[in-house]
Amino acid sequence: MRRITSKIAALAAMAMLALIAPALPAQAQQTAAAEAYFEFTDVTGSTAVFQLTDPVKIQHARDLVNGTTTERAHVIGTIAKTTAPYNPQWSYHFVPETVDFFDLAAEVCDATIPYVEEHLDEAGGAFLPDLRWCPWSSRLVREVPAP
Q: 116 in helix, strand or coil?
């Protein structure tokens, strides 16, 4: 009887694995698809693109774009001094994991998109300490396709 119970348990485990295994790639695809790209502008009329990976922040950005909300309308985050495939016109980009939204922020992190480009070598010191950037006049324009 013990042998039959063991075989039944083994068969049940194999059946469960067969059911779960096809679901794993779908879950991996959902994780990979859990990113979105948004274009924003500032007072200069320049535009830049940033990536979001947090589903809550993605939804907030979509709500800003479609006018469902006006709260925390400006973008803030840490910049990396490298070009990103989704933002090739600039020599810097927001680090996706650091991007958030704000209503009010300290003046020390405010700068326009082109000003950051022009003074990128100074960023991280007195200009944009800790590479934290909060363009006060930033406004989301639209969601853009992945590069």
A: helix
pLDDT in tens, 25-59: 443 334 445 899 999 999 999 999 999 999 999 99
- Token pair belonging to 58: 């993605």
Give the closest residue to 42 by CA, choosing from 111, 142, 96. 111
Q: How many CA atoms lie within 13 A of 136 on its CB side?
A: 8
Q: Alpha-carbon torsion 42, 78, 52, 75, what sign?
A: negative
pLDDT band at residue 22 using 50, 70 and 90 as cut-offs: very low
How many Cβ atoms sit within 10 Å of the Cβ of residue 65? 17
Give the range among 3-12, 61-70, 71-80, 101-110 with minimum mean pLDDT.
3-12
* Tokens 């939804």 found at: 59
CB atoms within 10 A of CB 90: 19
| Residue-range domain boundaries for the chain | 2-31, 34-144
